[in-house]
UniProtKB/TrEMBL annotation:
It comes from the Eukaryota. Belongs to the NAD(P)-dependent epimerase/dehydratase family. InterPro entries: Epimerase_deHydtase, NAD(P)-bd_dom_sf. This is NAD-dependent epimerase/dehydratase domain-containing protein. Residues 93-381 form the NAD-dependent epimerase/dehydratase domain. Pfam families: Epimerase. SUPFAM superfamilies: NAD(P)-binding Rossmann-fold domains. It comes from Anisodus tanguticus.
Length: 483
């Protein structure tokens, strides 16, 4: 989520797949037909419309599917809850950043499970690609076509609020309109390399992520005090300490006294630092205001298919393979598919936690179904297995060989500042205790991911494979894509 316009119409997606435009409010600023990709203070300053701060000029875009009189129920309708009078109602979940990689898969999964879902997004992730000359391996439908297709296949509505959560007036209107029981917050700039390109993107990442999360906290406090915040954190907050990584907290004895304290943070990029700031702000508001929150410190996600995104080509999720947004295993599978050597950074001993995207959506559902208590800041380490980069490369090489692919590996100078050989043992038991049934990395999963990459290999731009962002060479001047 980032700075973008709030426009003047409500977009209702009906069961007949037609868009209905209805006036919501008057706004003196027209909807732009194009975007100036120039960069000044923020890489998106010229993407935002200059708008008046008065209440009269506030305007919102809402896109929602018109409710059917009798909505089809899923076989496993886990999204219902009991009201005070004993009636059963559907639990409302707002997915912020629901047009993104993890957010889209999560929104569909929760909708299929019987939750009433609303997506809040400003669609800025799509503009990142335009700005940097990148493209998802998979062709991505517009958010409106995605929602229409989901409705036509399942009979289920997903509401859409298009706007910027850094604009509190917009977020407040979305909260008051939808009245969420839980908020799943994916709405942040998620790439460490992106935050290390130049000063403007570093500033943008921290402003967007920290201010956006603060606005979500204030919206919960003001409008939905019982709402449960499920926030996507990152295992990168912990760094690579030479001791075991606990789940959020550590009990220490110092000078004869014992206390349980937040686990020390050792962020390794401006992006990871923004996540640390988020965690501190959420923890404070839980203590001060009684907010209930679950921080999901997620490992590196791989895969593209979930049961829901595989239902139709218009529901397919994005798959990033470039050096800015692509994650390690996804990148390696695409590289193998096009015959490019696997790009192992440095010595390849960097070890992290990994999980299938099907487990991302499962973990979010578990957190929603088992909410934190009022005033509780709960931390789950969200991953299923640990691998080093060299181990991943070996697994892809072996799996590629079975498919007749000649897979080679090349060592690339590490663009990051990080330990390339280190101890790493992170605890991750809490989600298992609540019922997580993981999809572990197997030969069949690697075969599927490799075949998927081969299917779309003609869309690969090999110029985007090698790393282009250096931690040590980050500069003050904005970098743009050469024509």
């Amino acid at each position: 989520m980032a700075h973008l316009l709030s426009t003047t119409c409500s977009l209702d997606v009906s069961s007949s797949n037609k868009l209905h435009f209805n006036s919501v409010n008057q706004c003196s600023t027209p909807i732009p037909t194009s975007f100036n990709m120039g960069i000044s203070f923020s890489p998106f300053k010229k993407l935002s419309l200059q708008r008046k701060r008065s209440s009269q000029s506030q305007c919102v875009v809402r896109a929602s599917a018109v409710s059917m009189s009798q909505e089809a129920k899923t076989q496993n309708d886990s999204g219902s809850q009991q009201t005070t009078d004993g009636a059963s109602t559907r639990k409302k979940v707002m997915v912020i950043g629901g047009d993104g990689y993890c957010g889209w898969a999560t929104a569909l999964h929760l909708s299929k499970k019987g939750y009433e879902v609303a997506i809040v997004d400003n669609l800025i992730r799509r503009l990142f690609d335009d700005q940097l000359g990148l493209e998802s391996l998979t062709p991505i439908s517009s958010i409106h076509n995605r929602i229409r297709r989901w409705k036509s296949l399942t009979g289920k509505d997903i509401q859409l609020f298009v706007g910027d959560i850094c604009e509190f007036d917009f977020l407040a209107e979305a909260f008051k309109s939808f009245e969420p029981d839980a908020v799943v917050h994916f709405g942040e700039q998620r790439s460490a390399p992106y935050s290390m390109i130049d000063r403007s993107r570093a500033v943008f990442t921290q402003h967007n992520n920290v201010i956006g999360t603060l606005n979500v906290l204030f919206a919960i406090k003001e409008f939905r005090e019982e709402c449960h915040l499920v926030k996507l954190g990152t295992m990168g907050e912990y760094g690579t300490p030479n001791i075991d990584i606990e789940e959020g907290y550590i009990t220490i004895t110092h000078n004869g006294r014992t206390d349980t304290l937040p686990y020390p943070k050792q962020a390794s990029s401006f992006y990871h630092l923004s996540k640390v700031h988020d965690s501190h702000n959420i923890a404070f508001t839980c203590k001060a205001w009684g907010i209930r929150a679950t921080d999901l410190n997620q490992g590196v996600v791989y895969g593209v298919r979930t049961d829901e995104t595989a239902m139709h080509e218009e529901l397919v999720n994005r798959l990033d393979y470039d050096g800015v947004f692509g994650t390690a295993l996804n990148r390696f599978c695409v590289q193998a598919a096009v015959g490019h050597p696997l790009t192992v950074y440095g010595k390849g001993g960097q070890t992290r936690g990994y999980l299938d995207i099907r487990d991302t959506v499962q973990c979010v559902e578990i957190a929603i179904a088992n909410p934190a208590q009022p005033g509780e800041f709960r931390v789950f380490n969200q991953f299923t297995e640990q691998f080093s980069v060299n181990e991943l490369a070996a697994l892809v090489t072996k799996a590629g060989g079975k498919l007749g692919l000649e897979v080679k590996t090349t060592l690339v100078p590490n663009p990051r500042v990080e330990a390339e050989e280190h101890y790493y043992n992170a605890k991750h038991t809490k989600l298992y205790e609540l019922g997580l049934q993981p999809h572990l990395l197997s030969d069949s999963l690697l075969d599927s991911l490799l075949n998927f990459s081969v299917q779309y290999k003609d869309r690969v731009d090999t110029k985007q494979i090698m790393p282009s962002v250096s931690w040590k060479k980050i500069g003050a001047k904005p970098k743009t894509v050469a024509a």
